[in-house]
Amino acid sequence: MSKAHFGLIGLGVMGENLVLNAERNGFSSVVYNRTYSKTESFLRGRGSGKSISGAKSLQDFVDKLERPRRILMMVKAGAATDAVIKGISPFLEDGDLLIDGGNAEFRDTERRVQELESKRFGYIGMGVSGGAKGALEGPSMMPGGTKNSYVSIEPLLSKMAAQVDDGPCVTYIGPGGSGHFVKTVHNGIEYGIEQILAEAYDLMKRVGGMSGNQIADIMSFWNKTDELNSYLVEITETCLRTKDPINGEDVVEQILDKAGQKGTGLWTVLSALELGASVPTIYASLNARVMSSIKSQRLFAETILEGPNIKHFDIGKSDDGMSPIMDAVVLSSIASYAQGMELLRIASNEYNYKLNMPSIARIWKGGCIIRSRLLNRIQEAFQAEPQLTNLLISPWFSEEVNKRLPGLTRIVAGAAESGIPVPCFSSTLDYINSYRTGRLPQNLVQAMRDCFGSHTYERIDKEGSFHTEWLK
Ligand code: NBP
Predict the structure, then answer these.
(1) In this predicted model, what pLDDT tens digit does every residue of 411-432 receive, in sequence order?
(2) CB-based contacts of 235: which residues, under 8 Å, 6+ apart?
(3) Which residues line ligand 1 (CB under 6 A)?
(4) Last residue of a domain, one of 122, 141, 176
(5) Three-state secondary-structure class, residue 169
(6) Domain ends where: 176, 198, 221?
(7) Is the overall model pTM greater than 0.90, yes or no?
(8) What is the pLDDT of residues 281-313, one digit of tens each?
(9) Number of domains in the chain
(10) Is residue 52 situated within a structural domain?
């Protein structure tokens, strides 16, 4: 029997779909899963009648693969990935390639690359985005590791990836843990945009008194615009239109308002804090999930803490796409991308990843959860200026800011006067206002620090370090 082209370890939601994708693209495959019954049921079900075989043991798995072996691990990040690496390593030989497609913390990938570099096989840490459907039909993939290892897997990945006008949604990201770092930041941006759309929905529902279908109509309108056309807006419309088979009501209204925050959103914010990158819109979305999770406290506080009643301020009209809310959504989405790209730029310098920013924007244009028409603009902005410090100052984006800032401001002010939290909208407003302010009040912060701790300060009129005897 001829040997398989491709091996997959981990038949979870992603693994199952990725192996079907590889097989559809002409790569006969062999699958291994820790719990063999899953392998059996997959081969009897979705995997039946295809060039996919199963392996009961890792020895059997490697024996069924042609050399050099190309193996993708799609297992839970962390200890599970370490366990699989430990299990498979003794079976791998010269030139074999092991790819971790899970959501690994980038430092874990750095460590694994270091540890495994001394072995004879290659190791790639690859972010994969697109959920189950993307995995099957074509995800966006962010592989990092040595260039040679990537080159050997490129034909397979290029076929499996989503395809956009300017190529497959995969490219070599850079060395070490760079692929997983880029995927982490992708997820941070995703957190931001999800929360932004949730804030827009909340305002339309609570201030505008709009039904799920009416809000879905606005999503449909937004999805036809250059600024907001995106996968997340598209699925928000779907979510809002879906009825509960139990009671016929909007399903969304039956869902408990508690969201978890898994690793990647948190890691984006931690990395930003470490690297001194400003990501307030992304952080606000993470914190919104944390606040949502303390439901019982919120229910109690609601009976004690008073606030203003909802005021019916101008949130726009449906026939103009709720224009001030649209302003808030557009600018906050731009801010999420701007903050994510800025974090990537700073990390690239710090970790010597040499990230190609236009390429990253390009491979996010298809297959992944944050795919959107805005990414064309982002790609163009970085093509025009690869070392662009912040998207907000790029011509198309600065025009958007100047045009839409009054709308965002009215929405944040109205929400505040109505006692409705809009953490991403208000963080974005502060972010933009801070960024466009040449002189911030940190002169006073520096004075206080020098006053209590003799930390010294710099002056605006001459070079050097200065101290004042404030308490004499
Ligand atoms: P899960 O994250 O639920 O992982 C399930 C797989 O991990 C199963 O095959 C399971 O085997 C295996 N596994 C576990 Br759990 N512990 C193991 C261990 N100690 N040794 C060997 N195998 C072990 O599945 P998923 O949702 O498909 O995600 C796979 C990876 O892809 C994760 O890192 C995830 O973060 C990432 N990811 C997920 C998505 C998504 O939309 N779901 C998107 C992008 C990336 P078992 O059957 O024996 O329990």
Answers:
(1) 999 999 999 999 999 999 999 9
(2) none
(3) 10-15, 33-35, 38, 74-77, 80, 83-84, 102-103, 128-129, 131
(4) 176
(5) coil
(6) 176
(7) yes
(8) 999 999 999 999 999 999 999 999 999 999 889
(9) 3
(10) yes
